[in-house]
Design a protein that fits this description.
about 130 residues; mainly beta; Jelly Rolls; 7 strands; globular
């Protein structure tokens, strides 16, 4: 089973940010995201458990860098070329313009992405796609 990253449906698009998400790639959701440096997910995760993402992610950074902060306060930066696993319980901030491929658990990803898209749409007065 495969899908071209450009064929993954867009779930949200706004100045420098494109979030694409396709459920049921195997037993995961596949995402291809492009985000501008400075994008901070923390404000958009408010209202979720511990105000953090409760979804695990696997993937690779194609371009750029993202800093992950975990529930325990530790953080790490994931850079271009890195393959990663991010456990549930984290926030994220884009440090350098980012292109990233992510595989996530379907149910939890759906809950988180719907929450984030609504939050971003509310902040920017946009309607989600």
């Amino acid at each position: 089973m495969k899908i071209n990253r450009n064929a993954i449906p867009v779930v949200m698009e706004d100045s420098g940010t494109v979030l694409r998400s396709q459920k049921n790639i195997g037993k995961m959701t596949a995402s291809y995201n492009e985000m501008a440096a400075g994008t901070d997910f923390a404000p958009h995760l408010k209202g979720l458990k511990n105000n953090h993402c409760h979804c695990s992610h696997y993937g690779t950074v194609l371009e750029g860098a993202i800093r992950i902060t975990y529930d325990n306060g530790e953080d790490e930066q994931i850079n271009e070329g890195d393959v990663f696993f991010i456990p549930a319980g984290h926030t994220a901030k884009v440090m350098k313009d980012l292109k990233i491929i992510v595989f996530s658990t379907i149910k939890e990803h759906n809950e988180v992405i719907n929450h984030v898209v609504k939050s971003i749409a509310n902040v920017n007065n946009l309607s989600s796609i």
